[in-house]
UniProtKB/TrEMBL annotation:
InterPro entries: Tscrpt_reg_HTH_GntR (IPR000524), WH-like_DNA-bd_sf (IPR036388), WH_DNA-bd_sf (IPR036390). This is GntR family transcriptional regulator. It holds the Pfam family GntR. SUPFAM superfamilies: Winged helix' DNA-binding domain. Residues 11-79 form the HTH gntR-type domain.
């Protein structure tokens, strides 16, 4: 499992972990019933505390992405299509918010940004 943690990021490590593991599950790089690394192993790999990894796993379990079986480990659950679409919509919204923020900082107007998006969408359709 390829996880890259940015220790100097403003995003907490557990949140980076959750987001990356969700993405791996949603894009099916991690398949249903596939085991995740143990809390200790992953903590060592990403140079974080076991409590941080445990917090991420607990959140993923609450959100229905993984299940933990005491003494056996954590495993990927199947993700229903609705949850997958909602998650993709949410991540797209977050990315768009970043683009809009960057555009505002660059002095790009709403109309210019809308024109740019329309142009890109037209190119995609061609």
């Amino acid at each position: 499992m390829k996880i890259i943690i940015q220790h100097n990021s403003m995003v907490p490590i557990y949140e980076q972990l959750v987001n990356q593991i969700k993405s791996l599950i949603l894009e099916e790089s991690l398949k249903e019933n596939e085991p995740l690394p143990s809390v200790r192993v992953l903590a060592k790999e990403i140079k974080a505390s076991a409590l941080t990894v445990k917090k991420a796993y607990d959140l993923l379990e609450r959100e229905g992405f993984i299940t933990t079986i005491h003494g056996k480990g954590s495993f990927v659950l199947s993700v229903n299509k609705h949850a997958k679409r909602e998650n993709l919509l949410y991540s797209t919204q977050e990315e768009l918010e970043q683009v809009i923020k960057k555009a505002r900082q660059a002095g790009i107007s709403k109309a210019e940004l809308a024109d740019l998006i329309a142009m890109i969408l037209e190119e995609e359709e061609a």
